[in-house]
Design a protein that fits this description.
The longest helix has 19 residues. The relative contact order is 0.07. This protein is an alpha/beta fold. It is built from 28 helices and 21 strands. An eight-stranded mixed β-sheet has the order 3-2-1-4-7-6-8-5, sandwiched between helices. Helix 9 packs antiparallel against helix 10. Strand 19, helix 23 and strand 20 form a beta-alpha-beta unit.
């Protein structure tokens, strides 16, 4: 029997789950079992759990459906537990180093207590000082093991479930489990303390609780707050049935009522139904009030008396009338010119156009990436929705014929931004764009993240300085309703890098659909358009941007590479879009395709890809063609930009550190050999998870047409997908 069973529910926290699990596995005290609770074997969290279960036999995952909620997940873990003591840890929290050793040492001092309460630290997600709210509750408790009657204010109602270790035999013997519904910690904590006979405290922090940027799910508006009434009623009823003495029942009643009063007076938690909540709380108060109970003094005592009398109007007057949230502009729009600014404000007062969608890609560079692919599919599946693409002045010619557009900064641009119900972007709309109630913002992203993104950049000075205000960045994130993901890795990164309340859409990237729908004829046409000589091997060289450099440098002598790699090799040079000057550079066997409007077409034309750390590798992998990593400055890039995984340990193909190594890979055929194919297969398995040629259709049906997720086309298994053929494959066959 292990000393501890640590139960970790994982629903909705896949992005931080790895930190939670690793904080347990890294404990110096190793006599434990770790029980992650996943939604299903194919849930986002399951991949994180499986990676740890594969290398540590102490990890024993179980499953509970999302419909069971937090209570169901914890109860599923409790049923599977075999340890002497049980701990609960939320999937976005961590055990502090040495936590289990401290708990074990304290239990050896106190003996087998039913519950060992410990302190926890509430850590602001961004800025601010950590708090230790449990410390005042535990400060007055006796030093050794004690009966609950000696510390009557330690009721369990005000402590989260993960702030204690519970003797498993005590829980099973009393048949204690988490009550269904929300606010389950109130019910569980109260029931545990009501039944316990021996308690002890550990006056040191065991759990580090990370506050979510978007706040606790329990604080969100909704009728789920009515569950608090049931949890309080359950605890107070059980206390009465067990005949707890007044010395214990009065603090329990007072703390339970305090929780009810906080909710009754909170307009955000209960935007409607507050009167009904107050009425039911009043009845509960009168039913459970201990004989001889004296309300506390001051304003809280007045609230007690009003709750006892059921006087809701007086209660509202006492707490003050909270004004309705101002729905006017939160950030002053920044269109140029006073007249344009005024017109934008006026357009914001007009109704939303339910059949208007606005698209933008790469800050207006043109018709590209995921927004363009979604736009094209929407014209087929949702022709009733008028689509307007935003573009920088001077780039209007880059849009395909028939695409309606508006120039960024123009009055027409601000009009459609104010009126559109749907706003689709792969970056972010301008600071002054207002998120109107009823509008739908879709963030499509524009790559799978290898390098650090969003707020994860804050610890890298060079990048942070270029990013600007993270507060403003997060203000833009708050406008997102949906966020698109191409794989589980991305889903987890977006959750950490861009914390918000949006819905993740694991549909794949629409821009990659063409890799499964293009034909051999399409590939041949694109190669002719780009000037690729027939029968040559076209190698796409696509280096990424270096934050620590100014200006574009190829990083490789391409002419020398062509000579060394073989006479049949030509290079397609595509610089990062930051360096697109709209004109070609180079010539001969080096074809500069930086200005070509479609990255996807360039990839289709290429027989192989050479890149360093660009996200193009994740997209190109869908074509199942050779990829070579040229990593001449990996250590510098990793330190200055930050990365999410070690590309050198998990590359999509052979890695070269010098120009000589790179040329040799092509001369001896290693670039397309069996080892390269094996690396690519593993890479595709991890990062081409949802790209199957129907991503744009799924997005249009879900976001623009409002179809439920279960009605969307399922993702085709990777083994059944057939990517577009490479030109060299056609020639050889």
């Amino acid at each position: 029997m292990p000393r501890f069973s640590i139960i970790v529910p994982s629903h909705g926290v896949a992005g931080r789950l790895a930190q939670a699990l690793d904080s347990v596995l890294a404990q110096s005290f190793g006599d434990f079992e770790l029980i992650p609770v996943c939604d299903a074997p194919d849930s986002p969290a399951a991949d994180v759990v499986a990676a740890r279960a594969g290398r540590d036999s102490r990890v024993a995952p179980v499953h509970a459906p999302p419909s069971a909620g937090l209570a169901g997940a914890r109860n599923a873990g409790l049923r599977a537990a075999t340890g002497a003591y049980v701990l609960f840890l939320d999937g976005d929290d961590t055990l502090v180093p040495g936590a289990l050793a401290a708990l074990d040492a304290r239990l050896r001092e106190t003996g087998d207590v039913d519950v060992l309460y410990a302190e926890h630290e509430r850590v602001p997600w961004w800025e601010g000082e950590p708090a230790n709210p449990a410390a005042p509750l535990l400060a007055d408790a006796p030093d050794g093991a004690f009966s609950p009657g000696r510390a009557p204010r330690l009721t369990g109602v005000r402590l989260p479930a993960w702030s204690a270790a519970y003797r498993r035999a005590f829980l099973t013997g009393r048949r204690l489990a988490f009550p269904a519904g929300h606010h389950t910690d109130v019910g569980f904590g109260g029931l545990v303390t009501v039944h316990a006979e021996r308690l002890a405290v550990l006056r040191s922090v065991v759990v580090r609780h990370l506050l979510r940027r978007q706040g606790s799910r329990l604080d969100a508006p909704g009728t789920h707050h009515f569950d608090l009434l049931g949890q309080v009623d359950l605890v107070l009823t059980r206390a009465g049935e067990l005949g707890l003495p007044a010395r214990r029942r009065e603090p329990l009643f007072e703390q339970a009522v305090a929780a009810l009063l906080r909710t009754a007076a909170h307009p955000r938690r209960l935007p409607s139904g507050r009167r009904d909540f107050f009425r039911r709380a009043s009845a509960l108060y009168r039913r459970h009030r201990p004989a001889g109970f004296r309300p506390p003094g001051g304003g809280l005592g007045v609230q007690h008396r009003l709750l006892a009398s059921g006087s809701y109007p007086a209660f509202r007057a006492l707490r003050g009338l909270h004004r309705a949230a101002v729905r006017a502009v939160r950030a002053v729009p920044r269109p140029r010119g006073a007249r344009t600014r005024l017109l934008y404000r006026l357009h914001l007062r007009r109704p939303l156009d339910p059949n208007l969608a606005v698209y933008c890609a790469y800050w207006g560079r043109g018709y590209a990436c995921n927004p363009a692919a979604i736009h094209a599919r929407a014209r087929e599946l949702a022709p009733h929705i008028r689509s307007v693409f935003l573009v920088e002045a001077g780039r209007e010619h880059t849009l395909p014929e028939g695409v309606e557009y508006a120039v960024l900064g123009s009055r027409r641009c601000w009009e459609v931004l104010a009126r559109a119900k749907y706003l689709v972007n792969n970056a972010n709309f301008a600071e002054g764009v207002v998120k109107r109630p009823g509008s739908v913002h879709l963030q499509t992203q524009h790559g799978t993240p290898l390098k650090k993104m969003g707020v994860d950049q804050s610890t890298y000075p060079v990048v942070a300085a270029a990013t600007g205000s993270f507060t403003k960045l997060l203000g833009r994130v708050d406008r997102w309703d949906f966020n698109l993901s191409a794989n589980r890795h991305s889903t987890q990164v977006w959750e950490r890098a861009f914390p918000g309340s949006y819905e993740q859409l694991e549909y794949g990237y629409p821009r990659n659909d063409v890799y499964y729908t293009a034909t051999a004829r399409d590939v041949a046409r694109i190669r002719r358009d780009l000037g690729v000589p027939e029968g040559r091997t076209a190698v796409l060289y696509a280096p990424t941007h270096r934050d620590h450099r100014t200006g574009f440098e190829t990083g490789l002598d391409l002419a020398a590479f062509c000579e060394a790699a073989g006479e049949d090799v030509v290079v397609l040079l595509r610089a990062h879009y930051f360096y697109d000057r709209g004109a070609a550079r180079g010539g001969g066997r080096i074809l500069d395709v930086t200005a070509h409007r479609s990255t996807e077409e360039v990839c289709l034309a290429a027989d192989a890809l050479i890149t360093d750390y660009s996200s193009i590798m994740f997209d190109y992998a869908n074509l199942d063609r050779p990829i070579v990593i040229y990593a001449d400055d990996w250590d510098v890039y990793r330190e200055t930009r930050g990365v999410y995984f070690d590309l050198m340990a998990q590359p999509p193909g052979p890695v070269a550190r010098t120009p000589e190594e790179l040329a040799r890979l092509f001369r001896d055929g290693t670039w397309a050999g069996p080892e390269a194919a094996a690396l690519r297969a593993a890479f595709r398995e991890r990062f081409c998870e949802f790209d199957d040629g129907r991503a744009a259709e799924r997005v249009v049906r879900r976001v623009l047409l409002g179809e439920p997720p279960e009605a969307l086309p399922p993702v085709l298994p990777l083994a059944e997908r057939v990517p577009a053929p490479a030109a060299t494959t056609l020639v050889r066959s």
